[in-house]
Every structure is written in C-alpha cells, then in structure tokens.
Amino acid sequence: MPNQDIVRWPAVVADRYRGGGLWRGENLGDAILRRAAARPAAVAVRDPETSLTYGDLVATADATAAGLAAAGLRRGDRVLVQVANTWRFVPLLLACLRRGVVPVMCLTGHRERELTHLAELTRARAILVTAVVRGVDHLALARRVVERSPLERAVDVDTLVPCVRSTGGVPSADGSGEPVPRGEDPAVFLLSGGTGGLPKAICRTHDDYGYNARTAADVCALSSSSVYLAVLPLGHNFPLACPGILGVLGVGGTVVVSPSPRPEVCFPLIRQHGVTMTALVPTIAQRWLDTVRQEPAARADLESLRLLQVGGSRLADSVARRVGPELGCALQQVFGMAEGLINMTRLDDPDDVVTGTQGRPMSAHDEIRILDEDGGVVEDDTPGLLVTRGPYTPRGYVNAAAYNRHAFTADGWFRTGDVVRRRPDGNLVVEGRDKDIINRGGEKVSAEDVEEIAYRCAGVLHAAAVALPDEALGERVGLVIVPRPGQTVTLDDIHAEMRAAGAARIKYPEQLHVVDALPLTGVGKIDKKALRRQLAPAREERS
Ligand code: J2J
C-alpha cells in the first residue's frame, strides 16, 4: 500500500474541513491553470534571465511532466529536489503537482549526510538538482548519494525543464492524460526545522496546502496586480505558500525569483519589475535596512514595495519599528512553521501589534493552546508551550511513528516547542523555545545532529551544541566539549569530522568551548539552560 508512512487527519475532522469548504478536493495546480486560461499572456514568473507568461508556464510544465515520465517517474513516486532559486523551480513544481510526483523540498546546503537520510526516510526514487550552485557541483554530489542510497537516478533540472513558449490556446499541464492527484493526496514534502537529529519530512496534501496558500493570500490581500519577490530558498514553506509562489500564482499575480538575498541584487529587481511584496528572515531584513541607512538613494528602488513579511526567527522590536519609516512599506510579522500553523499580524493592525508581536493564527479554524509544564492552560500574558491543531497542520511526520508519539499529543495537538505569550488582544509574542535547535538566521540546526558528529571525534568525551548569540544571525552554533583525559580537541578537528560525515555547512560549530564538566539536570541529562547561562559571561567578554 502506498503512503502508509503518512499520518492522516481523523476522518471526522477531514469531513468537517471538507464540509466547511476549507478543503476543496482540487489539485494544487488547479488555481494556477484557471489563471492561465483567463490571462495566458500575463507574466507568471521571471528571474534576471527569463520571463514566462502563464501560457509559457503551463507549456513548460507540460514538457517537464513529459520529462518526468520519460525518467520513469510515476504518480506517487517521491523525488528529492535540490534546486537553486531560478524560474525553473516554478514549472518543475507545477509539473510535479500535476503528475503526482511528490517533491521533497531539500535545501541547497544539504550534503551527503542529509540527502542520504532523506532518500531513505521518504523512499525517494530520484534526485533532481541544479547542476552547479555557487561553485558546488550538485550533480556530482547527487550521483554520490545515488550510489549509497535507494535513489535510482540523478537528474539535472536544466535538462528536465526546457523553456517552452506557449503557442496560443491553453495547454493541459497534465501531460499524460492520467487522472491528476487531488484532495488528500500528498502534494509536497516539506522538511522540519531541526528537532530530533536529522530532518523529518512533513507531508502537505493538495487540500491542506491549497487552504494554506489561499488563506495567506487573503490575509495579505493579494490580487492579480501583486508582484512577489521570492528571496528565501524556494523550497521553504514561507516563500512557497505563505502566501509565496502558490498564493501569488493562485490569484494571477507575478513571481520574481531572486538568485540572492543581497540588496545589490534584490533592490534593482524590485525597481525593474515593480515588486509589491516580499518575505525575508530578520537577518536579511536588517541587512536591507542597513543598506538604506548607508545609501539613502537606494530607497528610491523600493518605491513600489507595499508589504514586507518578516519571519523565521524573532524580529527585535527595535528593528521592527524601523521598517515602516526607513523602507517606506508596511511590515507584517509572520511566525510560522513547516508543520503547519502560520501566525501573522494583519495589514490593518495598529503599530504596536505589528512591531511588538508575531501576530495571531491566520485561520479562524486554527486551534491553539498555551500550556504550562503540567499540561494546564496558562492565563493570558503568561508564557507557556504552544500546541496547535488545524486544517493545515498535519497530524504526524512521515515515517516517524516513534517520534510522532512525543511530537503530538494523543488527541492530535502538535507540540511546536515554542514558548509564547498571548496578549489579551489575541496576538502572540514569541518568548523563547523548549526545543533543542539553533535558529541560525532563520535556518534551523539540530543540536542533536551536531553533537552526534562531534562524538565521532576521538578526543571528545562529552559534547553539547548550544545557540550562542550572534549580532548578524541572531544565533550561531556553539559547541561545548569535555575532552578525554590528556587529549586536546580543536575547532579544526571538529570541522574535519563534519566534513567526513558529509554534513551541511550550516551545522559546523562556529565557536568551541572546552570545559571540565557539563552541568546536568536532576535526571542526568545535559542541562542546556544552565550551560547557556554559564557561557553568558564569555559572551560579554567577546563583545
Ligand atoms: C520567532 N520564531 C519564529 C518568528 C518562525 C513563515 C515564517 C516562518 C517559517 C519558519 C515558516 C518565527 N519569531 N516570527 O515556515 O511559513 C521559529 C519557531 C518555529 C520555527 C519553524 C513560514 N517564525 N520561528 O520559520 O519550519 O521556533 O518555518 O517553530 O523553518 O521557527 O521553522 P520553519
């Protein structure tokens, strides 16, 4: 039986979502095809090199779907996708959605360790890559992964996705003539933000992800005149569907793909294409603000920009207050997760909400509770652990039965691991977290995975990875170790181990502390909170 590794919503809950019209039983690509039929000559997607109308997008997706079939990929097959930010991502996505080939949204930073793991976890049949990204030979990497995993082949997306111009009329975008997947069929697999070792996969269905994209598009008041600059890596939930690519194309707007988040790349794209909105992580938002401060003339590039979404890690209130006056656009804070729940401030919220909170659930059908350590619901204004359920928050990770038992409550609430406070006006403020990750400029690093590799270093007796404060990134990866008696361990030794493990660069510890002993909790586990407190004086010395 296919898809046995996926956790479904309970049938009564699914019926409720369907009955209420939240789940439409469509294919995620349907909304885009309707737009293509209505306005085939409108621009759907462009990057610095290429521009595709809606007609071209569908024609190109058709050709790509045929390429997937020729590569032996069939409905229900999963494929790892590790592609750069270019226009090709969009027709590739549409082709996968129509054919029912499920893309597993890998990051370009992933290396042998993560890709091999994901291939095994999802039982993927192929890996689709951009051949070279920033000097890294991803095709060679992909071929190495194919050799040591169940993957059957590596495919270069530049060959798979040809640029096909529409010849008029509206092509089908289902290529094969077979029935297209829809409703509760899997649409895409997103990756989790780093808890519990190697990445976990989250199955988003056509129903739930469609609802996700439409709801975010409504909250952001998108229309066919919206021009969205996709800056963050395209396989992330934020630029993909919050509202991102799927939200914007679903209403007939234009997606401009930026190959880089740098102001010198993004600002001219904003000016040239009349970009009206974009989504950034705080680190990048800060860089844009600093650029405008240093070169006030650069602000003229941003004239068309109406809305800046910022999320992925906590935006400092002081930085939030600078966005309106200095960039000349509205700010929307977004506190979201690939597992589902998206919180947003609203376009008509007062300033103190927009600059001082991370917003509230985007759907009236989202359920949230904030709990104390014993599972009781806390009062407003009291920090607690956020749990959630809802029409776009799946009930389990893919192929992870044991992990799901503690990531979800018995009645289906997802434990986000975030510590939040709800204000009496309903808006949430993220106060911290109770999960073992390092949030490095919005990219999540699993402490457990860093430690596992550190333990391979012969001189390491005990190891603990912790988040250390970093001015540019918010947090960086710190490693605290107790060496074996008489041994020395350097950061270079740890990096050599990281390389040998084929780990993503983002996991490489940036700072090493060697100590005699690690603080332990009452049950003998490493006490990370105490450790961070111990490291605090060292932080002050550095700055
Ligand atoms: C504090 N922490 C935040 C915020 C996410 C939109 C926006 C972000 C993500 C994302 C996303 C935060 N303030 N504003 O998928 O669609 C931390 C929390 C959360 C975790 C999820 C989207 N916004 N976070 O960041 O799956 O700890 O999704 O649980 O990568 O990021 O990470 P991820």
TrEMBL record:
It comes from the Bacteria. Residues 450-525 form the AMP-binding enzyme C-terminal domain. The keyword Ligase applies. Pfam families: AMP-binding, AMP-binding_C. Residues 34-397 form the AMP-dependent synthetase/ligase domain. Keywords: Ligase. The keyword Repressor does not apply. InterPro entries: AMP-bd_C, AMP-bd_C_sf, AMP-dep_synth/lig_dom. Belongs to the ATP-dependent AMP-binding enzyme family. This is AMP-binding protein. It comes from Myceligenerans salitolerans.
